[in-house]
Amino acid sequence: MVGMGIKPPKERCSDPKCPFHGTLSVRGRTFEGVVVSDKMSRAVTIEMERMQVIPKYERYERRTSKLHAHNPPCIAARTGDRVKIMECRRLSKTKSFVVVQKLGA
């Protein structure tokens, strides 16, 4: 349903913004990251780490970015979980991604 070989979760939910059980369609970019906060209602903050090259010194540095994503009740990601998020339509001022898979703790 979502594509990219992602299977729907075993739990069911009645969230209209769920890509599996609601009407939300996903598209565009896909990221993996770690949930650093789950204090919001049906939303999580995800931190992604990447390596940035510094040509002058011929070295790499580690950089991080934070994104907000919708967290459907059927997935229910918690702090410390590694998750996969996909882009969707704008859900609020800061949310335009949705959690589609929990990869582990």
Automatic annotation (TrEMBL):
<dbReference type="GO" id="GO:0003735">
    <property type="term" value="F:structural constituent of ribosome"/>
</dbReference>
<protein>
    <recommendedName>
        <fullName>30S ribosomal protein S17</fullName>
    </recommendedName>
</protein>
<dbReference type="Pfam" id="PF00366">
    <property type="entry name" value="Ribosomal_S17"/>
</dbReference>
<comment type="similarity">
    <text>Belongs to the universal ribosomal protein uS17 family.</text>
</comment>
<dbReference type="InterPro" id="IPR000266">
    <property type="entry name" value="Ribosomal_uS17"/>
</dbReference>
<dbReference type="GO" id="GO:0006412">
    <property type="term" value="P:translation"/>
</dbReference>
<dbReference type="GO" id="GO:0022627">
    <property type="term" value="C:cytosolic small ribosomal subunit"/>
</dbReference>
<keyword id="KW-0687">Ribonucleoprotein</keyword>
<dbReference type="GO" id="GO:0019843">
    <property type="term" value="F:rRNA binding"/>
</dbReference>
<keyword id="KW-0694">RNA-binding</keyword>
<dbReference type="InterPro" id="IPR019978">
    <property type="entry name" value="Ribosomal_uS17_archaeal"/>
</dbReference>
<keyword id="KW-0689">Ribosomal protein</keyword>
<keyword id="KW-0699">rRNA-binding</keyword>
<dbReference type="InterPro" id="IPR028333">
    <property type="entry name" value="Ribosomal_uS17_arc/euk"/>
</dbReference>
<dbReference type="InterPro" id="IPR012340">
    <property type="entry name" value="NA-bd_OB-fold"/>
</dbReference>
